[in-house]
């Protein structure tokens, strides 16, 4: 297949693109700059100039491909409403182009906040729908496209997609620990964070793309939930810092924007995904990646 991938040069997207290439697919990657285009070309990918804000570039990319894997997102925490509008407009553009073709539309979603305090499964519908919802209600919107002759698949990623080179949530927690001089967790630290290695996540995306009978919701989750205290203790060991509890009301001051996420309890299961797609995560666990030391070798952003 020729696959149009948004976010192809990103943390997850670059691994997905490599996985698709290795399986014999060709990748048309969205590139918002000449530098990004060159990066994609250096990896043997075809670059398609445009951006998430350029709806016409998204339409053209989708029209030129056999499938769309939408992994790009504007992670602008200062304007999440704007990011949600951009996300919804992108999914609407893909829906317009793919209508009636039967082609796959895979999009990145998440397990975070879907079932606070419980364990969310693939059969639990997202409570977020409509333009004002987080991420513009894009998951519910995309899944509704099955009625329009499209094969939608929501890939719900764990909040922690880890591995050497990760610059996401865990890297930020490491940076906060450096800044504060202590590795902290919120309350008793029993709240749970699901995790998945980047390579395992990429392989799942490929399997869901290739299997015409793939379920409409899959969970890129290898570990159902690693407790926040366990994560903080591993970071403390890695940096040689003390580990302490922070009161919930002080989390925002201590952690900044990531405090609300790190305080959340968001366990998630992938049992059904593993059974239905024959996907067995085999990469290092989150703690193994932390023990390996790459998170502590360089400063996180």
Automatic annotation (TrEMBL):
Q: Which organism is it from?
A: Motilibacter peucedani
Q: Which InterPro entries match?
A: Epimerase_deHydtase (IPR001509), NAD(P)-bd_dom_sf (IPR036291), NAD(P)-dependent_oxidoreduct (IPR051783)
Q: Name one Pfam family in it.
A: Epimerase
Question: What GO CC terms are in its UniProt record?
Answer: cytoplasm
A single GO molecular function term of this UniProt record:
aldehyde dehydrogenase (NAD+) activity
For the NAD-dependent epimerase/dehydratase domain, which residue ranges apply? 3-214
Name the UniProt record assigns to this protein: Nucleoside-diphosphate-sugar epimerase
Task: Report the domain of life of the source organism.
Answer: Bacteria
PANTHER family, per the entry? PROTEIN YEEZ, PUTATIVE-RELATED
């Amino acid at each position: 297949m020729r696959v149009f991938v948004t976010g192809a040069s990103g943390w997850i997207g670059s691994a997905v693109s490599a996985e698709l290439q290795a399986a014999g697919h060709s990748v048309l990657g969205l590139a918002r700059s000449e530098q990004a285009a060159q990066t994609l070309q250096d990896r043997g990918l075809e670059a398609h100039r445009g951006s998430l804000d350029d709806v016409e570039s998204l339409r053209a990319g989708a029209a030129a491909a056999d499938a769309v894997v939408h992994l790009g997102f504007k992670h602008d925490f200062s304007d999440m409403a704007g990011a949600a509008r951009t996300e919804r407009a992108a999914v609407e553009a893909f829906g317009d182009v793919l209508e009636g073709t039967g082609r796959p539309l895979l999009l990145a979603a998440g397990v975070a906040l879907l079932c606070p305090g419980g364990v969310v499964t693939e059969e639990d519908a997202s409570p977020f729908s409509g333009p004002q919802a987080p991420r513009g209600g894009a998951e519910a919107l995309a899944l509704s496209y099955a009625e329009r002759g499209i094969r939608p698949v929501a890939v719900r990623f764990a909040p922690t997609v880890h591995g050497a080179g990760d610059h996401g949530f865990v890297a930020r927690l490491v940076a906060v620990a450096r800044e504060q001089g202590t590795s902290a967790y919120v309350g008793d630290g029993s709240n749970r964070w699901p995790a998945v290695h980047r390579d395992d996540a990429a392989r799942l995306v490929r399997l869901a793309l290739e299997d015409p009978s793939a379920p409409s919701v899959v969970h890129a989750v290898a570990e159902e939930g690693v407790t926040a205290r366990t994560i903080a203790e591993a970071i403390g060991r890695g940096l040689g810092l003390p580990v302490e509890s922070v009161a919930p009301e002080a989390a925002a001051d201590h952690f900044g924007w990531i405090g609300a996420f790190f305080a959340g309890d968001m366990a998630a299961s992938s049992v059904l995904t593993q059974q239905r797609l024959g996907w067995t995560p085999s990469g290092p666990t989150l703690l193994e990646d932390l023990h390996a030391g790459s998170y502590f070798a360089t400063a996180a952003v």
